[in-house]
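re: the backbone from monday

yeah here it is again, tokenized this time
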């Protein structure tokens, strides 16, 4: 982590205004929802104005006002879900209406890179404990896509663990989510005020 000011830093809103965050999540069995709610709590604990929204109801990024975007998704087939993997989840008991769209599609609807100017982002996923150190998972993919869209990443892709496909979350993961969100808020604030550059891959 460098302490150099970020050369490309262009805050979308005045640096003195309170940070605004949009947390968009996708969840077939509820675990990613629960982590996303804890992430929203952690951001609010840092004084960030936070909106938490299911991807099915999320406004397009260009229509929303935020400085920090946090995306959360379940890992499906080592990546973000696709229509086919969501249908697979439905076959395993998830509610069919949850399968209509996902984070991959939401990012896919983003506009040109200018839309991301001055906007920080971070992504997390849920995944099963057996594969905790997956080289590729939903948040890895989300961060890659966000960087391509011009977002400034303020955290590495971050996993939260579930015991099995339908959960439950591993004990302690909600506290982990709150702590992670607080770090994300602090990093976004530092970037916004030009105090540091937090690179993530
Ligand atoms: C079709 C499908 C594919 C999955 N593939 C993976 C995988 O590649 N790696 C992994 O760790 N978990 C995998 N899982 C488990 C999910 O990550 C787990 O169901 C999810 O984290 C639960 O989150 P949710 O309750 O928000 O849906 C898969 C689950 C489904 C339904």
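seq for it, each position gets an aa:
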């Amino acid at each position: 982590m460098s302490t150099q000011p970020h050369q490309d830093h262009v805050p979308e809103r005045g640096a003195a205004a309170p940070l605004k965050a949009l947390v968009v999540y996708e969840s077939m069995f509820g675990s990613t929802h629960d982590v996303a709610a804890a992430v929203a709590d952690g951001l609010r604990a840092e004084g960030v104005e936070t909106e938490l929204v299911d991807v099915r109801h999320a406004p397009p990024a260009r229509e929303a006002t935020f400085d920090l975007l946090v995306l959360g998704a379940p890992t499906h087939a080592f990546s973000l879900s696709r229509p086919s993997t969501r249908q697979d989840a439905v076959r395993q008991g998830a509610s069919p209406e949850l399968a209509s769209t996902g984070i991959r599609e939401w990012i896919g609807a983003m506009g040109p890179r200018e839309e991301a100017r001055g906007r920080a982002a971070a992504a997390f996923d849920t995944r099963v404990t057996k594969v905790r150190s997956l080289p590729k998972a939903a948040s890895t993919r989300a961060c890659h896509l966000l960087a391509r869209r011009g977002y400034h990443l303020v955290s590495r892709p971050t996993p939260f663990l579930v015991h099995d496909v339908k959960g439950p979350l591993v004990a302690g993961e909600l506290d982990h989510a709150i702590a992670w969100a607080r770090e994300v808020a602090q990093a976004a604030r530092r970037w916004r005020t030009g105090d540091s550059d937090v690179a993530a891959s």
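The first strand starts at residue 20 and ends at 25. The beta strands are 20-25, 49-54, 68-74, 120-128, 152-153, 158-162.
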